[in-house]
Amino acid sequence: MAESQSTEYKSIWRDEYLKWICGFANANGGTIFIGKDDRGKVLGITDAKKLLEEIPNKVRDVLGILVDVNLYETKEGDYLEIIVEPYPNAVNYKGQYH
């Protein structure tokens, strides 16, 4: 599955992806996969279980919203799925709306 308006693939987690989460929350929602390349092929991430706990907390603390984070363990490697629902109120990231 290719990237689209509501699907984004990232090989590793970076806190700057909170901007993507903010944008999805302000639009129609979306999903970010961490541990996949731009074509959706699983690359795997080594700290998946740690991120499974950290990402929801960062999103809550920085953006004030809740997201679902799911861990998938495959033979190619572990990856995360971050599901962002659309929010009725505008969400900002460090004072900016994405």
From TrEMBL:
Source domain of life: Bacteria
Pfam hit, one: SLFN_AlbA_2
Gene3D superfamilies: Schlafen, AAA domain
Species of the source: Albibacterium profundi
Protein name: ATP-binding protein
Schlafen AlbA-2 domain ranges (all copies): 3-94
UniProt entry tagged with the keyword Nucleotide-binding: yes
Sorted UniProt keywords: ATP-binding, Nucleotide-binding
GO function term, MF aspect, one: ATP binding
